[in-house]
Design brief:
Pfam families: Cupin_2. The protein is mainly beta. The chain has a single domain, classed as Jelly Rolls (Sandwich), CATH 2.60.120. It contains no helices and 12 strands.
């Protein structure tokens, strides 16, 4: 059993959002990663795809997600399931907060870039 507390060394801030890592292999989880996302109103992440399914549960605000050419608004209290290997882009229509879960071995691909990126908050 592992009990994980939020810690400053598990926070990653990007120009688009702040991610606080919780469960991850580096913190005792063998298979899953979970993290909290906070994104300010008007921010948007880059178009990208992730090699593993992600489950996002919004706890505050709302986001707009474009996935496979379809755009949906997701509000607090709802859960979004994003399929693996499909281009997506998250836009904060208003500030939002969400908890995300995925398999720990997921990597990100960005169109026009070679190779993949790891998600440091999920490792």
């Amino acid at each position: 059993m592992h009990v994980i507390s939020a810690s400053p060394e598990n926070v990653t801030a990007t120009p688009n959002a702040t991610m606080t890592g919780f469960a991850a292999p580096s913190r005792g989880s063998a298979e899953l990663s979970s993290w909290h996302v906070a994104m300010s109103a008007g921010s948007a992440g880059p178009e990208h795809s992730v090699s593993r399914e992600q489950v996002w549960t919004l706890t505050a605000g709302s986001l707009e997600v474009t996935c496979a050419g379809r755009t949906e608004k997701v509000a607090a209290g709802r859960t979004l399931v994003l399929p693996p290997d499909v281009p997506r882009r998250i836009h904060a229509a208003e500030a939002f907060e969400a908890y995300v879960v995925m398999r720990a071995d997921g990597v990100v691909s960005v169109p026009g870039e070679e190779g993949t990126r790891v998600l440091p908050w999920a490792r």
